[in-house]
Design goal:
With about 350 residues, this protein is an alpha/beta fold. It has two domains: about 120 residues, Tyrosyl-Transfer RNA Synthetase (Orthogonal Bundle); about 150 residues, Rossmann fold. The chain contains 17 helices and nine strands.
Length: about 350
């Protein structure tokens, strides 16, 4: 396993240089412990070395293929979100069925949720929010968590027509450990004569210590929190973020770094918008042109800008605004459901066969 160069560039604080060996050793110990621990992934616990291929097999979900992403772009008329393009959302349930519904003109909606008033939120919690670009703001037990999967929970949007409820499709982006909740929902849906909600499963953002660990709200040194100051973000990345760099600058220049295990680079795959810039950083890091300290500096700048913007936006939220948002009311939105499209003769024959 590789580690950060002993001699970082001049723009990296001296504290980062002196803690590199200790941080690398701690990350190696954590990785070894995770490798020896049996993988557990469920809504209550995530431990061990997470094998996403095994989860797809065990859960019976499907990989999100390039062809499916291309179809999503055709149907929506928009470029796929960066978290889809880069494989952060890697698995799905019935996304094809939801795209079929979109093409028919049936109602389609997104659903996500979290308890945003908690100070223990970290950047890993933001993945569904980044994807949906809005915040429902309520966290509940499974029965209540399942209810918003059905259009009948939103009469202010979809009205009172049972026919609309039965044609509507819900898309739920979530971390894969939340899948068991919605498996129950999907089992119940046909009995209610509703469509099963479609799911997109996201990978976990790794803890600062490396890919075999998971960010924990109870550990200040494992995560970047949404309440962290710019100085705290800088210190955490420089001190704790596991590196794919080499042991010395000379070795790094000769052999290059490994972005596949580098935490700072991984965070950029979540938060850096430009695919071209990300590819350029990866190329320079692999070739040895870019050092660990330079990569970490880019990561620090991107995270600081993102979290500072989040904090400034949150300061503007008042109790009155929250009360207004959470009050059930008629929205300035009307959904008009088109009539079902008539099936072609070929499709009818195919169904009969």
């Amino acid at each position: 396993m590789t580690s950060a160069p002993d001699t970082p560039p001049a723009d990296v604080p001296a504290a980062a240089a002196t803690t590199t060996a200790a941080a690398a050793a701690a990350a190696a110990d954590a990785a070894a412990a995770a490798d020896s621990e049996e993988m557990v992934v469920n809504p209550w616990k995530v431990s061990g070395n997470v094998d996403y291929e095994k989860l797809v097999r065990d859960y019976g979900s499907k990989h999100i293929s390039p062809e499916l992403i291309e179809r999503l772009e055709r149907v929506t008329g928009h470029r796929a979100h960066r978290l889809l393009r880069r494989g952060v959302f890697f698995s799905h349930r019935d996304l094809e069925a939801l795209l079929d519904a979109k093409e028919r003109g049936d109602p389609v909606f997104l659903y996500t949720g979290r308890g945003p008033s908690s100070d223990s939120m970290h950047i890993g919690h933001l993945v569904p929010f980044i994807f949906t670009n809005h915040n429902i703001g309520q966290w509940s037990f499974p029965a209540i968590q399942a209810a918003p999967s059905f259009a009948s929970s939103f009469p202010a949007i979809f009205g009172q027509d049972e026919a609309v409820f039965r044609r509507a499709f819900c898309l739920i982006p979530c971390a894969i450990d939340q899948d068991p909740y919605f498996r129950i929902t999907r089992d119940v849906a046909p009995r209610l004569k509703y469509n099963k909600p479609s799911l997109l499963h996201a990978k976990f953002i790794p803890a600062l210590q490396g890919f075999n660990t998971k960010m924990s709200a109870s550990s200040q040194t494992s995560a970047i929190f949404l309440t962290d100051t710019p100085n705290q973000i800088k210190n955490k990345i420089n001190k704790y973020a596991f590196s794919g760099g080499r042991m010395t600058v000379e070795e790094h220049r000769e052999l290059g770094g490994d972005p596949d295990v580098d935490v700072a680079f991984n965070y950029l795959t979540y938060f850096l918008e430009s695919d071209e810039e990300l590819a350029d950083i990866e190329k320079k890091y692999r070739s040895g042109e870019m050092l660990t300290g330079e990569l970490k500096k880019i990561c620090i700048n991107v995270l600081t800008e993102f979290i500072t913007e989040f904090q400034e936006s949150r300061k503007k939220i008042t109790d009155e605004m929250v009360s207004h948002i959470m009050t059930p009311r008629k929205l300035d939105y009307t959904f008009t459901m088109p009539p079902p499209k008539a099936e072609s003769g070929d499709k009818k024959k195919s169904k009969k066969k």
